[in-house]
Every structure is written in structure tokens, then in C-alpha cells.
Amino acid sequence: MDSLNLNFCYLVPEIFLLALVLALFGAAMTKSQTLAGFLVKLCPVGALAAAICAFVTIPYLILDDKIMFFGAYRVDILSQFFKILISLGYLVAWVNSLKATTVREAQKPDYYLFLTLSAFGLSLLSSAAELVAVYLAMELASYSLYVLIPKRSHSKEAAEAALKYILFGAAATALALYGLSLVIATQHTTFITDLSPMDWTVAGNPLAVVGLSLFLGGMFFKLALFPFHFWFPDVYQGAGNETAAYVATLPKLGAIVILIRLAALLTPGLELTDILAVLAAASITYGNLCALAQKDLKRMLGFSSVAHAGYILVGLVSGTPEGLAASAFYAMAYVLMNLLCFWVICRISADGRNLTYQDLNGLSARSPLLALALLVAAFSLVGLPPTVGFIGKLWLITSAWGHGYDWLVIVVCVNTAIAIFYYLSLVRHAYAEEDIPFGGAQTLTLDRGWASSLGALLMGLMVLILGVVPGPVWSVVLRACRSLYVVIN
């Protein structure tokens, strides 16, 4: 491309989020609580408008992608699909944070500013088609999280979690930047489409393989893939419940969409593809085994997320559009079922404390709807029918079978059986354990408002509906991933 080729009709989702960022920045600078309160109430409107605009543009992108900024920015079906997920996830995060007691009232304008800025960076990352653009968008989304995590009043754990995240993030950023320099030095281009015909074998171009591996390490850090996961459980445990719900879900979408674009360059049997398969197996196994030993719910979900990062890589190593589509679909499933799980945690812990399994005792009697939502989320995280988690895992293992990674499918199946124990412990405590007097659950103040019940009901229904009728979403992501191979070839 030799021009900017701007088409603002396809940039409306980003424009909405950028407008919110600028408005919130102005309110934070003026210290006007009235203006800040008004703009905070506009955040869900902007997020919903961004999601609708991204959805509306999908039919116009079926035959032709929109390439902008000299080829560095690609608006296609895949990018719009992820922008819809990011915008809706941001909307849920906003609702979650409304009653956050761990964020000081004076800090809330700043909190929403950085929350919106992170979502804006992730939207840019969804369309980034050039490695420097990927790097810049990734850092824009990450720097905001460095500020959000310690915003938990009077919590040393939050400060410790933020410090660990910053230090590990700086190291991962340095590795990714060094890898980018090696790719530029060996392949002489940073555009993903131009990198596709290049030699990615160790024998033919070892420095290029090392460079791409290091650059992928930056994505693995965001995805919390083993062995780049060490910061993740501590951040989950230290951050506020509402912040942890955001950190656990949306930043991973940005990493996944870039991994999908880069995975289209790889084929089964390449050394780099084999490395991804080994990391997937190690991440799945390590995450599940560590989750078995946890008592803190957020820490358990942190280690389980390490396992889910490995599940997502299963589709990427298949070297087929169906495999990439399975990873994209499972990314949606992961975000939905984790947001539902965190929604229940935030409603149970209205005062913002960290929960243990014991705090779920008697939940079915105290709040039947929240207990049912937790059951649906747990079943989906395990991968039991008829939930979206089941159909997502089914497509992942189907895509990997018969492409040289049958052993990886066996690892997934074995670990799914292991995961049953700690996920269904959530259900056991909610339904089978009594709320005994010396437990911690009776001191918790539940959020019994209509918004709490409505949110749990809607997300629970989405988990079930997408598990029973996944066809429309699957056809969209499959078309998007097939178009990646058309562009590359």
C-alpha cells in the first residue's frame, strides 16, 4: 500500500473508544466529579455502539478487506469479531466495577480512563497487520493495566501484584523487541503478509526462527502461557475482583488475535510449530495440576487460565483454517465463561474481599440464581455439554487430530478429566455444603439487586445458547480464518 487509504466508516469502533478516552482524560484533569460521573455513565453507551458498528461492517468485509495506514492496519472479519468481543467485555467490566468498594471514589475517573484506554489499545491490536504496529498496540493496552492493578485501597497484595506484573512485563517486552529486531534483520520486512513466503525452518534461517520465537514470547506473556505465567496467579489474587475479571479476559483476546494471524504462517512439522505444541501440553498440564492445590478462588482461576491458554494453542498448531477458527471460537468461549464466573464472585463478595471455596457454602439457599450461574460457568470451564466450553474444546481437538499432533489431543482429554475435580468443587460447595456457623460465608454481603440477577441470567443463557447453536458464530470465524490463508497465498 502506498497511501493511508483512510475509511472512517470502518474505524468507528476505535473512534468511539478514543472519544471516551479523551473525554475521561479531560474530566480527570479538571477534577470535576460531576463531569466525570456523567462521562462514566456514557462508557457503556460507547462500548455498545462500538460493538454494534463492528458487527454492522462484517457483511461488507466478506469479499474485500480494508487495508489502511500503508498496509499496517487491516480491517477484516477477524478483527471485527474480536472488536465485538472486546467492546462487550469492556461493557461487562464497566458494570462489574460500578459497585467496586476497593477503588476510592476520587480515583474512579482515573480507573475508568485506564480501563477504556486498555480496551482501545486492544481494538487497535485486533487490526494490526505489521509487527511494529502490533508491538505499539500491545504496549498501549498493557501500560493501562499497570495502573489499574494497584488501585485496590489499603492492599499490600495489590501493590505487590502490580510490581510483579510490571517487572515481568518489562522483561517480556524486551524479549519481544529483541525478537522483532532479529526478524527485521533476517527477513527485511515486518508486514505479516510479506513474512508468509519466507523460510521459517531452523536449517534455512535460524535467526529468523529465534526472532519470531522471542516475539511470540511477548504474546505468550499476555496469554499467561507456561512458562510465561508466573505473574498471573499473584495478579489475580492481589488485584480487586472487578479488575481481575478484566485482566483475566480481555487482554488475552489481543494476544490471541495476533497469534492467529502469525500462526497462519506456520505449518505442522516446522520446529516452531512443534515448540508451540510442547508449550501447549506443558501449559495445560501444569495449570491444571497447580489449580488442584488452590483454596483461593481467584488464584485457582489464575492457574486454570494457564491451562486454557494451552487449549487455545491446540488449534493454532493444526495449520488449517478450521484450527485457527477453533482457537478464535474458544477465545470467545473462554472470555464469556470466565466473565460469568467472575460476575458471580463479585456479586458474592460485595465488599471486595478474596473468596475461598468455603465462602460458597450454602450459596444455592442464599441466592439460587447466582448458584445456578456458577454451575453453568463451572460446567462450561470443564467442557461439559451443552455449554459453549464443550463445543469449543470439541472443535479444538477435532482440528488437531490427524495433523501430526494426536498426542496433544490425548493430553487435552486427560487434563479435562483432571479439571473436573476443582471446577466441580465450586458446584459441590454451592449446592452440597451447608453454610456452617464457623465458615466465612455467613459474613459475606451478597449483591441481590436486579442488575446482579439480570447479568448472571444473560451471561448464563449465552453460555448455553452458544453451546447448543454455535453455527452462526462458527461460520463467521471460519470465513475469517479462511480469508487469512487467501491473503497469505
Task: Offer a quick outline of the entry.
This protein is mainly α.
What percent of residues adopt helix (DSSP H or I)?
over 70%
Strand content: under 5%
> Major sheet: size, sense and barrel closure?
2 strands, antiparallel
Mean pLDDT, as a whole number?
A: 82
Number of domains: 1
Output the number of helix runs: 20
Helices and strands: which structural class?
mainly alpha
| Rg computed from alpha carbons, rounded to a whole number of angstroms | 21 Å
Quantity of strands, as a count: 2
Low-pLDDT sequence parts? 437-442
- What's the shape? globular
Order of secondary-structure elements: HHEEHHHHHHHHHHHHHHHHHH
Distance between the termini: 17 Å
Strand order of the largest sheet: 1-2
Structure description:
The chain is mainly alpha-helical and 489 residues long. The chain has one domain. The chain contains 20 helices and two strands. It has a two-stranded antiparallel sheet with strand order 1-2. α3 runs antiparallel to α10, α11 runs antiparallel to α14 and α14 runs antiparallel to α16. The longest helix is centred in the middle third of the chain and has 32 residues. The protein is globular and about 65 Å long.
Give the helix/strand layout.
Elements: H1 12-30, H2 33-57, E1 66-68, E2 73-75, H3 77-97, H4 108-127, H5 131-148, H6 156-187, H7 192-195, H8 206-223, H9 232-238, H10 241-247, H11 250-263, H12 271-292, H13 297-316, H14 321-348, H15 363-366, H16 368-382, H17 388-400, H18 406-431, H19 450-468, H20 471-488
Helix pairs in contact: 1-2, 1-4, 2-3, 3-4, 3-10, 3-11, 3-14, 4-5, 4-11, 5-6, 5-11, 6-8, 6-9, 8-11, 9-10, 9-13, 10-14, 11-14, 12-13, 12-18, 13-14, 13-17, 13-18, 14-16, 14-17, 14-19, 14-20, 16-18, 16-19, 17-19
